[in-house]
Amino acid sequence: MQFLGLLALGLGGLVLEATLLPALKLAGVKADLLTIVLTIYALFQGPSRGAVLGFGYGLLEDLYLGRYVGLNALSKMLTGYIIGLGKDRLNQDNWLVPGIMAFFAIICQGLLVLFLTLLAGFRFPLLAGLEAVILPMSFYNACLALLGYNLYQGGIKWATRKRRIGSPG
Predict the structure, then answer these.
(1) Of residues 6 and 162, which shows the higher confidence score?
(2) Which domain of life does the UniProt lineage start with (predicted)?
């Protein structure tokens, strides 16, 4: 059941990124919903599950984009693993942690993509890419991760209350 929920979140996030979110760009960057979900999931589930979800979401994104298949899969997998390492080291109840981790996840993923494309023979100005895309995208997605985490926590509290009360449906 959890697999289907994560798949639905991934597909929904990909559809939103392709349709609605380009209209909501800030500073020329758009949200990366898949990385936000990956960050929150890896933070709670650990490095191995974070890596698996990162690979799945990255592959989904690669197949959708249709070029450089494996680039996002590898970068999101490594990002999910790295973020998952914080599972036992960070206070998951602190509402700032997911935002901070999303900030670093976007930076990590962006640098990995730049490094992998450099290995493949493409030349991008690293400093310009960092200033113009990666840092603004990190701030934007960190704010969205805070919102997403609060929605997630609210849903958990609602489900717990509903189970405790025993209300149907």
Answers:
(1) 6
(2) Bacteria
